[in-house]
Amino acid sequence: MVCRTKWGSCCCGTTMKSRSMSTASLVYKESQNRQLAQQVVSVRPILELRNFWLVPSDIDALAFVVNSAVDNAVGLDFGACSMELECLDALSRCQYIHHLR
Q1: pLDDT greater than 60 at residue 9
Q2: How far apart, in whole angstroms, are the C-alpha atoms of residue 12 and residue 21?
């Protein structure tokens, strides 16, 4: 699935790569498009982020996507990711997480 916004298109399919997921989350947050964010979590109930450095803005954007999943809890999998300490504060704003790895 391709999600179109005024900033361009983002892939929302089941093969989205980690950096693409982070970038798409930032776009959804900036657009404040909850419906688009809900589509992402309906297709990807576990958001996998692999092998890159996360900063607080990445987690804030993920929190927007996670909190859009009112009917479905979301899993976050941070495989081999490093993150700044402030990211832990940002994670506390995620309301609908069913598991965290």
Answers
A1: no
A2: 8
